Amino acid sequence: MTLLEVRGLDAGYGDFQALFGIDVNVAEGETLAMIGANGAGKTTFLRVLAGQVPAWAGSIMFDGTDIAHVKAHRRVGLGIALVPEGRMLFGSLTVRENLIIGAHAGRAGRWNLDTVLDVFPLIRPLLDRPSHVLSGGEQQSVAIGRALMSNPRLILLDEVSLGLAPVVVKSLYEALPALSEGGATVLLVEQDIGQALEVASRLVCLLEGRVSLEGKPDGVARSDITAAYFGLPAGSGSEASS
Amino acid sequence: MTGHRVTRSDRQSTAGLAVSAVLLVVLFLLPWWDSDGSLRVPLVAILYYLALAQMWNLLAGFAGLVSIGQQMFVGIGVYTLLSFAEDFGVDPYLSVLLAGLVAAVLSLPVAAFAFRLRGGYFAIGTWVIAEVFRLIALESDFLGGANVRTLTRESLGGYSLDTRNTVTYLMALGLAAGATAIVVLVLRSRLGLALRSIRDNQEGARGLGVSVGRAKLAVWVISAFWTGMTGAVILLHNPSTRAESAFSVLRWTALVVFIAIIGGVGSTTGPIIGVAIYWFVREFLEDAEEWRFIILGLIAAAMAIMAPRGIYGLLQKRWSVQFFPVRRKLVGPGVTGPAPGGPAQPVAGTGHPSA
Amino acid sequence: MEWLNAIVQGIMLGGLFALFATGLSLAFGVMRFVNLAHGDLAILGAFVAVSVISATGLNPFVSLVIVVPVMLAAGYALQLGAFNFTISPDPLPSILVTFGLGIVIQNVLLETYSADSRGLDVGSIEIESIRVTDAIAIGWIPLITLVVAVAVLGALQLVLSRTSLGRAFRAVSDDPPTARLMGINDRNLYAVAMGIAFATVAVAGVFLGIRQSFGPLDGPAQLLYAFEAVVIGGLGSVWGTLVGGLLLGVAHTVGGQFEVTYGYGSGPLVGHLVFLVVLATRPSGLLGRRAE
């Protein structure tokens, strides 16, 4: 079943257009990795889905209804949660409060403080610390946990690995299957292709605001991905749609 | 860049300049044909309000210094003139200049305190300091305390009534035209570029080596100087005063702010339009001061929400007019003339002669 | 002893200042919004009480039951209908709208109630006091005001630190776009904050009216005192606001002890000067965490 169906999406900031006619489908329960170079439009795409950046044109069907013009704060209640780039924890709130505020929209589901802490046990002793004293990896765990607290049907992860040590990234990615098992559909944006392909059931590559490649990780050749990623006119890049 | 040149004027702004020049000459010659003063006397108030509005506009519209304490400089001007002319016997017209200087000097310690605050807190902070000056005037034996003080005939003695009226009128005209010219000149100067880059991006401006503090301070002192002289001329026009009216926030800041907002902050033409509207409202509601404040206050508040650039901004959006040439434009082959207020601002930087 | 009495009375007066400062501090803390009509709204609240009392004959304390909800609703509506449109990195629109609103309130009050001074009569308690020593007596009204101020600030602190509303306030204060991702409607939250600000300033206005006579043009002075209390105490600190209010109150009463030339107390002048000294030496306030 298709959970999210994006058609002909244009978006940008001010005079600058970042996305050009994006078509993307996400099936319920899958883990879709969106890859692409810096500035390809991945973060913009997630922010449009979360309602932080307005869609200029096109439709965003979520579970059968067009949410393109639904306000950001209402989308959480519909079951869309974004883990923003840079974690964006609330500095005046403790770790516990950061997690609890994730449940502000009040959606019911399996995720609560206890089940989230089961996925990220390392946070448990830090619950009453102010969030800004945490390490980058701990902050990222809290940010993902905070999004889970809203019991999302679709969780959007923006650059989970950004600025983190490889060993930390590895442990964060090990937690991702738990998200899917909990019933959430995952759409993750990564620059680190290797990491993304390990967990993804499908991948989409963006190039300069357009979809340049789509397929299953084991179904596309590494050279095609490289071509779609950098926009090389590679002879083997036959599946590239641009 | 061959074939391009940077220009500040176009046909409209040249026309605007010509119209203002004619108007200025007519107003300058007014005393010689308006012999009974029936036009001149009411015009004085309009002119000094224009001067005050331009000076507030320079602070709030261009330097981001939203002062609610302009009444302090008016009051300082009033009391400086009183002290010099009445107590020390200095020529009253020379004292007008001294009033401006005293206001400018006092604006420095004021800035030392107020510049520690930003935005809305800067606004209230200037208001507090204006209150300090009012209370000092009220408590000072030397300045006359709570009593009414009058610029007496003795200190004005050297001049006939007719001469006095004419000189007051011409001074008010000079202050109004001068204030407008100051805004134009400041904006065309290096200081203006610094202010514009501060307004657009304070951090970026700092990175480019623009001294934010110094540019703001310069504008602050200029505005204090001119507002202080205007205060002195207000006393010449209306020679009786007391601390409550010399330091009145309603008269010397609220009305001035309303005039500037309604006409258009951040432009040189806006305050002129605003002062014309003020005149109109005053004629209609001559005996209802409260209603004047209510109506002007409501319009100004509505404008601030719906049309932050005032009536001039609305006109500009519609017909793209610019009367005073302060914006630098790049013209030449292949360059479409950017609409005023449009996104073609970086051009200003490229055209700047490095001094 | 006279000085000790002045200090005691100043602490009582400081309670009133803290009550005035609460709403200003809250609106700034939650949405960086500076309401220049804050003092005029207090006076408006006091005049609403005048009308409620003349229509119903209620005691001024009891009239709060009507005045506070009315002002709360007004604050909520005004934020949603007007102030929200001025929230931007540019402070100019919000300053202009609230400054204009203040001037309009003053003049509407002048038109409606005339320029006469009013007072809110609560009966004999007004002149009753607790005699501490021969030279020091604490009036019941100032004492009740101080207690109410501490209670209001304490309640606000509890709401901010313990409730989900308080968490949402702090989250929005930190980062509105991310708060929206949590499902928080920031615009609505701003309206709630402004409603609370109006409610507390209405309480302050009514207590001012019980304590002393007031007129339509008394708002700006209250705004300045509230602002000074906030800055002295430190932005973003609830207890700092109380400390700032108390210090300012003491400055007023101790300053009032000085010889004055024309019968105007030098209290307000001394208060302003104390504020300027704090501003120059501790720009982030006595208990401030953030410099502004």
Topology, pairings included?
The complex is a heterotrimer of chains A (242), B (355) and C (292).
Chain A lengths: L1 E12 L2 E12 L3 E6 L5 H9 L4 E8 L2 E2 L5 H7 L1 E4 L11 H7 L11 H7 L16 H13 L5 E5 L7 H16 L3 E6 L2 H7 L2 E6 L2 E6 L6 H9 L12
Parallel strand pairs in A: 3-8, 3-9, 6-7, 7-8
Antiparallel strand pairs in A: 1-2, 1-4, 4-5, 9-10
Helix pairs in contact in A: 3-5, 5-6
Chain B lengths: L4 E3 L3 H23 L6 H23 L7 H18 L4 H23 L4 H21 L9 E2 L2 H4 L4 H28 L1 H11 L1 H6 L4 H26 L2 E2 L1 H4 L2 H15 L6 H15 L4 H18 L3 H10 L9 E3 L14 H5 L5
Antiparallel strand pairs in B: 1-4, 2-3
Helix pairs in contact in B: 1-7, 2-7, 2-10, 2-12, 2-13, 3-4, 3-5, 3-10, 4-10, 7-8, 7-10, 8-10, 12-13, 12-14, 12-15
Chain C lengths: L1 H30 L6 H19 L3 H22 L10 H22 L15 E3 L5 E3 H23 L1 H11 L1 H6 L4 H26 L7 H15 L4 H18 L11 H15 L11
Antiparallel strand pairs in C: 1-2
Radius of gyration of chain C: 19 Å
Write the CATH fold name of chain A: Rossmann fold
Strand composition percent of chain A: 25-35%
Q: Quote the distance from N terminus to C terminus of chain A.
A: 27 Å
Main interface by residue count: B-C, 47 and 47 residues
**Span of the ends, CA to CA of chain C:** 39 Å
Task: Flag low-confidence runs of chain A.
Answer: 236-242
Q: CATH class of chain C, please?
A: Mainly Alpha
Query: Using only CA atoms, what is the Rg of chain A?
Result: 17 Å
Main traits of this protein?
heterotrimer; A: 242 residues; alpha/beta; Rossmann fold; six-stranded mixed beta sheet; four-stranded antiparallel beta sheet; 8 helices; 31% helix; globular; disordered C terminus; C: 292 residues; mainly alpha; ABC transporter involved in vitamin B12 uptake, BtuC; two-stranded antiparallel ribbon; 11 helices
Would you write up a description of this structure?
- The complex is a heterotrimer of chains A (242), B (355) and C (292).
- With 242 residues, chain A is α/β, with parallel strands linked by helices.
- Chain A has one domain: 3-Layer(aba) Sandwich (Rossmann fold), CATH 3.40.50.
- Chain A is built from 8 helices and 10 strands.
- A two-stranded antiparallel sheet of chain B has the order 1-4. In chain B, strands 2-3 form a two-stranded antiparallel ribbon.
- Chain C has 292 residues and is mostly helical.
- In chain C, a hairpin with a 5-residue loop joins strand 1 (129-131) and strand 2.
- The chains are: A alpha/beta (242), B mainly alpha (355), C mainly alpha (292).
